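Researcher: I'm comparing several assemblies side by side, and this is the next one on my list. It has 596 residues spread over two chains. Same procedure as the others: predict the full complex and return the structure.
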Amino acid sequence: MENIRKSYVSREGFRKKRVVEALKGVSLAVRRGEIHALLGPNGAGKTTLIKILATLLLPDDGKAYVNGYDVVKEAEKVRSVIGVVLDVSKGFYTSLSGYENLVFYALLKGYSYGEARKRVREVLELVGLYEMNAHNRPYYTYSLGMRARLSIAKALLTNPPVLLLDEPTLGLDVESAKTVRKLVMDLAKEGRTILVTGHNMYEIEQIASSITIINKGLVIASGAPADLKTRLGLMLRVSMRIGDVNSNVAEYVKNLIPVEKISMEFNADSTRIVFYTKASREEVIQGIMQIHKSFDVKIIDLVIEEPTLEDAYIAVVGGEHGS
Amino acid sequence: MVLRVLNALTYREVAWFRRFFADYVVSWIFPLALSVGVIFLPASISGVNTVLSRMSNLFNYQMDLKTAYSLALALTGIVNVVAIVINDVIQTMFAEFRFMEVGWMILETTGLVKYTIANAIIRPAIMTPLATLFLAPLLLYLNGFSGLVTFALLELVFIATSIALGFYSTIVAIPLTFHTKISRPWTIANTLAPAILAGTGVYIPVNLVPAILRFFAYSTPVPRSCEIVYLISLRGFPSEITLFLVFITFLTSLYLAVSGILSKNADARVRKG
């Protein structure tokens, strides 16, 4: 995807028009077979991007390719290689069952009636709706979790090599979100390329192998989760408890590890030290081992906390760091 | 491509029929009550013979009770077709694209032009026989085998009318769905069908109908359909049916062209965002 631009014109009253620039020249590439996450706050342009790749929206400018096909000039070919999940809470006929909705979709996709029935049963089994005996119930009776599963079943119906998932776990309870996450990871293991959007950093950190953060229609950071954290210069938080009351420990730490901030808390028989550092995890462990050896300090407890993707996201979207 | 859309829509209609069978039964009961009321309500005031005499004068055909009731039944058939097709096509399209957001599923697989054309043909073509099925046993009971022949001819007129109305409703539905911000389309759909029916003279003599209602009616094939339905009910196989079919083919082609242009614009508008 190169330099994609998209603006919306919304009317305010009869005469006044407002132009909203949803994407201001977004470029990104997703490698075959990886899960790539698109992160950003509400209104960042994530859904617009997914809709452009799904051929549902036309870009104003720029080029986008899916599996080598141009999304504007070869829309039919693009549609044959993608599965799309948009809003998991709707998108189906409420009075038809999940099974009937999918057969309708399969017939639209060009399956024969016999093939459609067979394939629909397969995907319903894959997402677990068949064993829940929910496939024959009207869609309006489905819980949000069941609706999300049905949306994924729809996306998988044509067995596409590329999946575009727009917030597939939005609004789901913990258990349903976990099931959907597992499903997405299993699909990636089969070699599918997945572009997923979301807000939940914990979730994205678990499933995505690369990330693009967009805000106000612009890419502001991208890379693997670990690289992103390193590049943003985020710090490790180290919490250590030593077995005696020793006010010199802070000096030992400072001499061996480049520390940004340190605090100490003296208890009756121990000292708790918390410090933040940009040093690598290995450097921190080596430094602490040396303190233990050289100064005969008894270490009772040690916790090294990695910066989370959420820290990276807040740092980027909050404007604390450039990309 | 159009064939697969037709397949999908046929499947959806059959699924809906199975799920909404009770609704169809209701749609048979109300017209039945109307057909009984057309003859027997005035008969309860002035007697059956007076009603038959007046109907004979009105239609310039000497009627007995069986013929009069057959005519009343045919009349309710056209009322059913107009009410169901207009309401259903407008409201379903609105719900698909504005409430349920099924529109994305459709646009993901095909273009709006192909979908609306297929929808305007398949929905009425399937719903009309289902909504007027109740006429078959009644006409058979009243007129024997010739009643079934009358039913077959009426169905031909009903289906041709309903397909034309399917495109007509699409012309109304597209601006409502894609070019306005209204959220209650049923107020328009529910007004349009009675306006068309009133303007055809189904309820009251057409010369008493306000000109604006007559305009609505004459923008559709319904007044001509009513005339041919009366002729079939009274005379069996009128020669005018050929001319009617030519007329309705022309009108359907005209509606198809307009709805095609509107669908193409709407497709471009939706994909533009």
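Model: For your comparison table: The longest helix of chain A spans residues 174-189.
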